[in-house]
Input
Amino acid sequence: MGNRSGPTEPSRPTVKRLYALTGNRCAFPGCPTRLVDRASGSVVGEVCHIKGEKPSAPRYDAAQTDLERHGFDNLIVFCNVHHKVVDDDHQTYPVERLLKMKADHESRLEGKEPLDEQASEAFASAVTVYFVQHGSVIQTTNQTGGQVAHSITNNYVLQAIGQLGRMKVAGDPQLPQQAVQLLREAANGDGMILVLHADAGLAVLVNGKQANEIGNPRSEALYRGIVESLRSAGLITLTQTSGSYAEVYKLTHAAFQLVDAMK
Output
């Protein structure tokens, strides 16, 4: 059995080192895709484990330690399309072939772009989100207080119906307009609110869109307060965390009721 007491995902320095060697290009031979579109900030690059990160993943090696599993030598960067292609057809893309792709791509010079720190930060943050959303989940049922570390799914019997009654009106001072908009956008999408603690500052995202102005202390404080208020009111619940980098919140049933009541 492998050592399962080490890291659960690649470290941020490892991810940034990987990105630096990509030249902002997918490692799949012949693929011209930019991992980060610098004009829009859109990130389509993903970190792929050469030997899978969990027993159900392609090319998993139980003899690896977690440090090896999430280390630089076991990671390669693809665009989101080729990540899926490689993992869906692991017989065509065994470990040896991926190691050669990695070596060839990291040593190649042509077609690569110079390192851009802003793009590097965007990529590292997106990778953190990816591993938060695809990590293991620890479930608790009928929990009345506290949180389970790492990844959490809470199924509460009692919901914040009292809070719902007080907050039905969008203009209610207890629920700022920005909070209403945040709930509406989340309810119309995947029902999730993501809080990222990046080097550039705090970012609150809904459906891939940034709600606050990152690097603006007033905006960051406002949205951090909004997230805490929604959580305290029982309208969102923490479902996953990734160290100090990211928190993923999910709208509760009461939140969806609230959004419906405001339509």
In short: Confidence is low (pLDDT under 50) at residues 132-173. Residues 12-133 form one domain. DSSP finds nine helices and nine strands in the chain. The chain has two domains: 12-133, 138-261.
